Amino acid sequence: LTHLHSAAPPGLGMEVMAPPTINALNGTSVKLSCTFNSCYKVENKQFSLNWTYQECSNCSEELFLQFRMKIMNKQLDRFGNRVEFTGNPAKYDVSFTLKNVQLEDEGIYNCYVLNPPDRHRGYASISLKVLTEEPPKHDSTVAVIVGASVGGFLAVVILVLMVVKCVRRKKQQRLNTDDQKTEEEGKTDGEGNPDEGTK
Q1: Rounded CA separation 102/29 (Å)
Q2: Could you tell me which of 111, 128, 141, 190 has the fewest CB atoms within 10 Å of its CB?
Q3: How far apart are CA 150 and CA 136, in angstroms?
Q4: Calpha distance 155→179 (Å, rounded)
Q5: In this structure, is residue 73 part of a structural domain?
Q6: What range defines the domain where residue 46 resides?
Q7: Which strands, in side-by-side order, build the sheet including 48-54?
Q8: Residue 94 falls inside a structural domain
Q9: Across the beta sheet with 30-32, what order do the strands follow?
Q10: Spatial CB neighbours of 85, under 8 Å, sequence gap ≥ 6
Q11: What CATH number does residue 99 fall under?
Q12: What CA–CA distance (Å, rounded) separates 97 from 87?
């Protein structure tokens, strides 16, 4: 019977997923990703999405992005036109991108999804931290945050160095084996020919 329990009853199938914390570098663009899964196909007529912003966990929520039939940006003064919907509800993706991140964009971003006939509204929240400079290198999160720009570049440099090293090493080996070959060939030419004649 246990396997029956694991199947969620219809109407409880909605699950919304978002990273709990996202770090963004001041002045960059950041994608606040929110995805959901539902037992039902997304019908634009019924589907609804709300993104709200809270300055602190007790602060009131401000609605700044909404999907009802189509995307509607509620232009909160704080975001101006820096919010761009980059998701695709049909693919269960309701992410948006915040451009030119400012220090005052720090706070909690809530993603609410309703996809009838799923009865209950799914919800996830993201805490956005805005960094003025890259955190110290030993922090493993750096790789994630700056991975795309600086980290990516370093990785390429390291990769190139490794490739160059490997190529050099192979060349070195090839030179050594070539020397041995020519020596051995010289021997067989001298001694091997008479045998062939007698066959």
Answers
A1: 10
A2: 190
A3: 13
A4: 36
A5: yes
A6: 15-131
A7: 21-25, 122-131, 107-114, 48-54, 62-68, 70-73
A8: yes
A9: 30-32, 96-98, 83-85
A10: 65, 67, 71, 73, 94, 96
A11: 2.60.40.10
A12: 9
- pTM (2 decimals)? 0.62
Judge whether 43 lies within some domain.
yes
Total tally of structural domains belonging to the chain: 1
Distance CA 93, CA 87 (A): 5
Give the model's pLDDT for residue 8: 41
CB burial of 65-89 (b: ≥16 within 10 Å; e: otherwise) equals bbbeeebebeeeeebeebbebebeb
Tens of pLDDT, residue by residue over 15-28, are: 999 999 999 999 99
Locus of tokens 């990769």: 159
Token pair in block for residue 95:
């992410």
pLDDT tens sequence across 117-173:
888 889 999 999 999 987 666 555 555 555 455 555 666 665 666 556 556 656 666
For residue 92, is it within any domain?
A: yes
Dump pLDDT digits (tens) for 86-124.
999 999 999 999 999 999 999 999 999 999 988 888 999
Give me the residue label for tokens 């010289």: 186
Contact 22, 126 (CB under 8 A): yes
The amino acid occupying position 9 is: P
Which is nearest to 22 in space by CA: 91, 118, 107, 119? 107
Residue listed under structure tokens 């634009």 = 44
